[in-house]
Amino acid sequence: MQTVRLSSKNQIVLPKNAREAMHLKGKDELLVVVKGGVTVIMLKPEKYSAALSGSAKGIYKKDYIKKERRSW
């Protein structure tokens, strides 16, 4: 685990091993998500729909969606 320091201009440098693990190159755009006390940095997806596809799989019971649609 490495530490980084915030510069006087509020900038950080991602360590080389983190950039290599994320396959980052110059001018790549990153997303910064803050949830509670945790900050996550990730590569910005080209298409959000593709990045989120299937992320809710298994959250609802088998017939939940059908029952909801019928109730409309």
List the helices and strands and how they pair.
Elements: H1 16-21, E1 30-35, E2 38-43, H2 48-52, H3 64-71
Question: What is the spatial order of strands in the main beta sheet?
Answer: 1-2
As a percent range, the share of helical residues equals 25-40%
Indicate the mean pLDDT: 88
DSSP summary: helix tally: 3
What report would you give on this structure?
The chain is of the alpha+beta class. It has a domain at 1-47: Pemi-like Protein 1, Chain: D (Ribbon), CATH 2.10.260. 26% of the residues lie in helices and 17% in strands. It has three helices and two strands, in the order αββαα. Strands 1-2 form a two-stranded antiparallel ribbon. Strand 1 (30-35) and strand 2 (38-43) form a beta hairpin. The longest helix is centred in the last third of the chain and has 8 residues, at 64-71. It is elongated, with a radius of gyration of 19 Å. The N and C termini lie far apart (51 Å).
Please sum up the structure shown.
The chain has 72 residues and is α+β, with helices and mostly antiparallel strands. The protein contains three helices and two strands, in the order αββαα. It has a domain at 1-47: Pemi-like Protein 1, Chain: D, CATH 2.10.260.
Keywords, please?
72 residues, 2 strands, alpha+beta, Pemi-like Protein 1, Chain: D, two-stranded antiparallel ribbon
